[in-house]
Amino acid sequence: MNILVCISNVPDTTSKINFTDSDSKFDKNGVQFIINPNDEFGLTKAVWMKDSNKASVTVLTVGDSSADTILRKCLAIGADKAIRIDCEAKDAYSVAKEIVAHCESIKYDIIICGRESIDYNGGLVPGLIAGCLDYNFITNCVSLEIESGKAKCAREISGGTEFSECDLPLVIGAQKGLVEESDLIIPNMRGIMMARQKPLDVIKAQNINSRAIDKKFFKPEEKGEVKLVKPDELDKLIDLLENEAKVI
Question: What residue numbers bound the domain in which 214 lies?
Answer without folding.
Answer: 2-221
